[in-house]
Write a structure and sequence with these properties.
Layout lengths: L1 H34 L9 H13 L2 E5 L12 E4 L6 H8 L4 E6 L8 H8 L1 E3 L4 H16 L3 E4 L18 H9 L3 E6 L2 H4 L10 E10 L8 H25 L1
Parallel strand pairs: 1-7, 2-5, 2-6, 3-4, 3-5
Antiparallel strand pairs: 6-7
Helix pairs in contact: 1-2, 2-3, 5-6, 6-8
Amino acid sequence: MFRTIFIRAWSIVCIFIFCSILIPGFTLLLIAHNLTPLNKRYYYYVPGIISKVSFWLMGIMFVFIDNNKPDKSKKMIYVFNHSSNLDPIMASSLTIGFTKFIGKAEVLNYPIFGYMLKHFYISVDRKDSQDRYKSLLELEEAIHEGASIVLFPEATRNKSDNMIGPFKDGAFKLSLKTKVPIAMLTALNSRDIMAPDNWWLSPGKLYCKWDIIDWTDKSFTEENIISLREHSWGIMNNNLKLFYNNE
């Protein structure tokens, strides 16, 4: 009973913490974006810094299982599992730099996030095959401009009892076509921090594991797309199994 009350109260505090950082941070970003001649690449650092500071103030501490981390000086296609509303903030805090997200088109209607998606990131209507293809072309263009890409290959929050949902092809097509490695992060206990179906947040340690999957020597074929997708899914699924079996 006491724990439930604490989590509810802490979650409300965390909303205020996030908004108190997001609103002034976004205001400065808006002013800089419209009124200063700064290189636009610098603007992409702001959401990541906001997310990182917010996580720290919310009492969430990253703990990495090993020292295998991506080289942030190189372009990467970052891939994350998706089991809570907290995951986009987590991904942003771990990929600070010239990094572009792809987000569902409905977010364009949200205050603040809609502006950021429209001007800095790439939107996709997942129900429209033509829009999905257009988004893939935009992602390729972003990579050629020097950006890294963040994708959630499950394409939606996994609310099932399975550890992860099935992967879509997009991230793996992109990696093989552009010859950019995949840096895959498995958030091992994100469901313990925030459940898939609500916004209640428990402070604590968020255990993570990076895997670098470099298939840049492989050709861009349908067979390799499927193989890379299944290989990546298997690694992430195994990471989760090992973590929960060893708890």
